[in-house]
Design goal:
Layout: H1 2-18, H2 37-40, H3 45-54, H4 56-59, H5 74-88, H6 99-114, H7 121-124, H8 134-167
Helix pairs in contact: 6-8
């Protein structure tokens, strides 16, 4: 029993001490990037709203941090998760992608949303507004796939025009 009390006190002591270790920079921006999805593409309002609710906290430069994000080691976990999410997709840098990369990214987004891999269950459990019902899910997937196909079509048209002008 004495060892259990000691272990609990050591654990509590460690938890108190780690609260004083800096967590690093938070992912908060006060402006919308000129390269953001909404500035570089015509996104229907409902689609954009759903993407912001379900995706932007981990996949943009502006995370809305919950109260518990100030508690270590949760802060470290969240920051790591956000950095990883932005490595895969950052909606604030979407306009920096070339046409082919945008099309591929939209296809990948459609796939993970369609398969209910995103938004992650660990996120929607604490953020119920981020849960996509079937209608929302289908609307987002349909829009993403149509935009991806449009991007590929435009890329192919551009290649065809280039080839034709080189042949003249």
């Amino acid at each position: 029993m004495k060892y259990i009390k000691t272990a609990i006190l050591v654990f509590i002591g460690i938890m108190i001490i780690i609260q004083f270790i800096p967590a690093g920079k938070k992912n908060i921006s006060t402006t919308t990037s000129v390269y953001s999805l909404e500035k570089t593409m015509n996104v229907p309002g409902e689609i954009l709203g759903n993407l912001k609710n379900g995706c932007y906290d981990c996949h943009s430069n502006n995370t809305k941090y919950p109260w518990y994000s100030n508690i270590q080691p949760v802060t470290w976990w969240l920051n790591s998760h956000i950095e990883e999410g932005k490595e895969h997709l950052n909606f604030d840098e979407f306009g920096n992608l070339d046409t082919e990369s945008r099309a591929e990214m939209m296809e990948e987004m459609a796939e993970v949303i369609e398969e209910h891999e995103m938004p992650m269950a660990s996120y929607t459990w604490l953020h119920p507004e981020a849960r996509f019902n079937d209608n929302t899910n289908n609307a987002i997937v349909t829009w993403l796939k149509s935009q991806s196909e449009n991007a590929v079509d435009k890329q192919n048209e551009k290649k065809t025009k280039t080839n034709e002008s080189e042949g003249e």
